[in-house]
Amino acid sequence: MGSLINSDVTEGCDFKPLDPEEFRKQAHQMVDFIADYYQKIESYPVLSQVQPGYLHSRLPETPPDEPESFEKILKDIEKDIIPGITHWLSPNFFAFFPATVSTAAFVGEMLCTCFNSVGFNWLASPAATELEMVVMDWLANMLKLPQTFMFSGGGTAGGGGVIQNTTSEAVLVTLIAARDQLLDVIGVESICKLVVYGSDQTHSTFTKACKLAGIDACNIRSIPTTIESGFSLSPSIFRKVVEADVAAGLVPLYLCATVGTTSTTAVDPVDPLAKVANDYGIWIHVDAAYAGSACICPEFRHYLNGIDQVHSLSLSPHKWLLSYLDCCCLWVKDSSSLVRALNTQPEYLRNKPSESNEVVDYKDWQVGTGRRFKSLRLWLILRSYGVVNLQRHIRSDVNMAKMFEGFIRLDPRFELVVPRQFSLVCFRINPKSHYGSNYIDMLNRKLLEWINSTGRIYLTHTIVGGVYLLRFAVGATLCEERHVVAAWKLIKDGADALLKRSEE
Amino acid sequence: MGSLINSDVTEGCDFKPLDPEEFRKQAHQMVDFIADYYQKIESYPVLSQVQPGYLHSRLPETPPDEPESFEKILKDIEKDIIPGITHWLSPNFFAFFPATVSTAAFVGEMLCTCFNSVGFNWLASPAATELEMVVMDWLANMLKLPQTFMFSGGGTAGGGGVIQNTTSEAVLVTLIAARDQLLDVIGVESICKLVVYGSDQTHSTFTKACKLAGIDACNIRSIPTTIESGFSLSPSIFRKVVEADVAAGLVPLYLCATVGTTSTTAVDPVDPLAKVANDYGIWIHVDAAYAGSACICPEFRHYLNGIDQVHSLSLSPHKWLLSYLDCCCLWVKDSSSLVRALNTQPEYLRNKPSESNEVVDYKDWQVGTGRRFKSLRLWLILRSYGVVNLQRHIRSDVNMAKMFEGFIRLDPRFELVVPRQFSLVCFRINPKSHYGSNYIDMLNRKLLEWINSTGRIYLTHTIVGGVYLLRFAVGATLCEERHVVAAWKLIKDGADALLKRSEE
Predict the structure, then answer these.
(1) Burial class of residue A325 (count of CB atoms within 10 Å of its CB; 0-12, 13-18, 19+)
(2) Mutating which of A32, A47, A58, A81 best tests the B interface, going by the most B Cβ atoms within 10 A?
(3) Does A53 touch chain B (CB under 8 A)?
(4) Can you tell me which family this protein belongs to (chains A, B) (predicted)?
(5) Alpha helix positions (H), A202-263
(6) Which residues of B236-274 are buried (b: 16+ CB within 10 A; e: fewer)?
(7) ipTM score here?
(8) Architecture (CATH level 2) of domain B138-372
(9) Are A211 and B180 within 8 A, CB to CB?
(10) Neighbours of B218 (CB within 10 A)
(11) Of A59, A176, A324, the CB nearest to B116
């Protein structure tokens, strides 16, 4: 924006929203603000203690007409925003799955923002498309995926990877590819006959994606699992369910198998499930959002055995590969099925490279049109740390979880509910008295509430097989052994107080 | 991550991916790198001049095992990445719609990244949810939207706004809400009878969203427009198409009206279209991705007349309100219809505030589960600049487009193809000779190719009503009058050379 020689608006000639020197000044101030925040992050309660509606009363009803100073805004962030933050980066955050971060990803994200390139097609920013292709092949290499999932193994119509925002979108786009491929054969009016499969442990986003895609809610199978099988999906039960559907005149479409479920990190056995699914022409997607990252270590790679038989795989580096939100990597063997279902060809985006079929246009691999240059983050992570350090990082988290698991085993008032496989420990207090299961559940609810109300650590719960349990998820980037030790002491203190009270 | 007292892996004890002092150092370096890039951005060719596959040959096939230095990576960004960038922030970028940026949004984005809060529900980061509610109400105020689109006008089941990634998602989620509301009444097996409506100028993402939602491709109406009506959708033709569908036993579902189409910024008349749609119980969405932002100025607000009669409205501040990608604001009157269609209730996300119904859980307003703290960007923009400067910004762009329009009018070899309404000028070279339309199209194609091959500016084209035209989109944040003047001189030079050649 500049001065307006022919303007009837004489005001506003001096508004420069991106003056490089003002940019430099404010961005440096923000770097220090953030570094200071990271330094003192342990001083804040992990779980925000504000009440619903706290912010509305603190802020004006309308935006200001005139500018306010950056210094005033920074003060308001301290005063009004930070109290309402649940500090996901705190080393005392053990809830959900932590969202992991790193300096490399932060500066990579700054660079992505800086260029603000809208890489819907190759020409709109060739580097954005090509770096994503390179980085997705690099990650595929680290995971020892078959060549069929890599660009270097085929061509633009073959295998390759793409960065989605979330697992939800990875599931949605592959489901649409599978759906349209099948409806092309059996006719669009058969959409109500399509059946999709997951277990009762599959992430809720699977059901949501299926509904978005127009799958009849009655045809979304949530196959029961049991504690005895570690909450993993049984191939023989899966086969029976599919057979019953086929016998009923329905058409099996899509299986979402999970490597590392959200509740307990259960692993569905990819190899035997894929064999069943392939017998029926079912598209197999593997959701390895959390645990897939562990498979860059040889000792965990076996959880992906059978991956050569599936159609698509997704994992989210924001969960365990230090990338910040949001970054979900999706690989497919047959990208042409995605492109057939998702491509658009408006005139205003037509260009010679796209028409040459020599390039990838990522808009045809995703829901939206516009897309950011996210591969910069992954590129900076992989180069700044190297594969060796990323493996160390995974192993360190797993070892801290093992340590916590050891604490649980040594205290007779506690028990592990399912075996630990990665960096999540599922446990509960169970004083092995004559109390019934409702009472035990209630004790655990009270323990969790007490722990979180202290603001010193944050844990979450789940219910599996009817059992209410607490989840101790190691993985916050700043977490060290001392935090795990202190967390365990706090949990024990809570148990002491609770059991003492319940005995009184 | 820390040292591992009980570890069987003794290596890797010193890998700290988020050491605050290392963070401070690298982030400061990156700020200077970016400020320098912004300072010298005019020295790069706007449109990248690399060939397909350029990057693959420059980078290794696999990631490094060991860390590489930040200095080396920065050098490689200069050497390998920047040549492949199409510089969307260049003041000489006049293609598509420019993606606008600002210092305030950049530092806001840094802060969003910093917290990395995954605000799927209120408790997961109360500030993230509540600031988004406040900011969406602020913007609604600036646009003079009716109270029914604001949180302050209703409650959690009523009106309000949410930040989506892209227009595609805004259309998809509202379409799903409309679809499921209707299928609840007429039965899920009627999905193949649902009909959706747009014009032949509606963004391609509308068709894509409809296909994602399982709408039969045969039932997606792309109603023709004409140059005489400025490519806007005619309410009377719309009514006839709907009547024919009803007569054929089909069920009208959803209308996407556009305020500011991508090709030519045509405006569909919201008020009379809404009257027709409401007669048939059709959900009306207004896609104002680009031009909606202009409506913060009183002189443009009339383009939203009738907005009180529609169900939902989206606009993308990354297009004209300086926000960087990706940021699409969606307002709905009846958020409960979104929530009914999109909510998930997995046990591991259950919590007291959500169950109290006193809070908004934004995961139920969008496709994915996880979500970033994007409202920080908008909050910083609105406070740092104030409404007055944002209005100045819009007017300044419009005035620069008017100036360019004036240049076209004064040169008899050129013509405006449609009247300019905002900051886009649609023009073509037309030497008014006896040459046919194919020849004129060819001249314009050649002119565009020549202009873009210089690397000095970047323009794109479209075809409307059978006419091939060039789009001059003013709006890059750094653009000043001198850039528009220089661009016009370059275009004239191209025309001189081209017409001279064609006469020889």
Answers:
(1) buried
(2) A81
(3) yes
(4) Belongs to the group II decarboxylase family.
(5) 204-212, 235-247
(6) ebbbebbeebeeeebbbbbbbbbbbbbbbbbbbbbebbb
(7) 0.96
(8) 3-Layer(aba) Sandwich (3.40)
(9) yes
(10) 10
(11) A324
Calculate mean pLDDT across residues B280-300: 98
The residues spanned by each domain of chain A are 20-87, 117-382
CA–CA dist B270, B186 (Å, integer): 28
Q: What is the dihedral of CA A343, A348, A353, A358, to 10 degrees?
A: 0
Cα Rg of chain A, angstroms:
25
d(CA A168, CA A314): 10
Q: How far is the C-alpha of A322 from the C-alpha of A320, rounded, in Å?
A: 6
Determine the distance from the C-alpha atom of residue A94 to the mean position of all C-alpha atoms in its chain, rounded to a whole number: 16
For residue B88, give both structure tokens.
């969307």
Residue with tokens 């795989």: A313
- The answer to whether the A20-87 and A117-382 domains have the same CATH topology is no
Q: Are A203 and B167 within 8 A, CB to CB?
A: no
Q: What is the per-residue pLDDT for A362?
A: 97
* N-to-C CA span, chain A: 73
Query: Topology of B20-87 in CATH?
Result: dopa decarboxylase, N-terminal domain (1.20.1340)
> Residue B166: which residues within 8 A CB-CB, separation 6 or more?
A367, A368, A369, A370, B205, B316, B326, B328
Q: In this structure, is the dihedral angle defined by the CA atoms of residues B319, B325, B328 and B329, taken in order, positive or negative?
A: negative
Q: Which amino acid is at B81?
A: I
Of A118, A69, A320, A85, give the one whose Cα is nearest residue B114. Answer: A85
**Alpha carbon distances (Å) from A247 to A240, A250, A278, B338:** 10, 7, 17, 35
Between positions 287 and 346 of B, the ones with CB within 8 A of A are 318, 322, 324-326, 341-342, 344-346
CATH H-level, domain B383-503: superfamily: Aspartate Aminotransferase, domain 1 (3.90.1150.10)
Q: What is the dihedral of CA B128, B134, B140, B141, to 10 degrees?
A: -160
d(CA A63, CA A60): 7
Write out the two tokens for B164. Answer: 């989506």
**Residue closest to A27 by CA, chosen among B327, B40, B35:** B35
- Return the structure tokens found at B33: 């790198």
The tokens of A260 are what? 């590392």
**What does the DSSP assignment read for B274-323?**
HHHHHHTT-EEEEE-TTGGGGGGSTTTGGGGTTGGG-SEEEE-HHHHSS-
Q: How far apart are CA B155 and CA B153, in angstroms?
A: 7
Residues of A in contact with B216 (CB under 8 A): 188-189
What are A149-152's contacts with CB under 8 Å, separation 24+? Answer: A149/A313, A149/A331, A149/A332, A149/A333, A150/A331, A151/A360, A152/B61
Cβ-in-10-Å burial (0-12, 13-18, 19+) of A6 comes to exposed
DSSP-based three-state secondary structure for B256: strand
The answer to whether residues B117 and A86 touch, using CB atoms and an 8 Å cutoff, is: yes
pLDDT single digits (tens) B102-147: 999 999 999 999 999 998 999 999 999 999 999 999 999 999 999 9
In tens, the pLDDT along B224-279 reads: 999 999 999 999 999 999 999 999 999 999 999 999 999 999 999 999 999 999 99
Residue B363 identity: K
- A16-28 burial, b at 16+ Cβ within 10 Å, e below that, comes to bbbbbeebbebbb
Tokens of A399: 């070892």
| Dist CA B10 CA B46 (whole Å) | 50
Average pLDDT, integer, range A405-433: 95
Amino acid at B27: A
The pLDDT of residue B502 is 74
Selected for mutation to probe chain B from A118, A349, A469 (highest B CB count within 10 Å) is A118
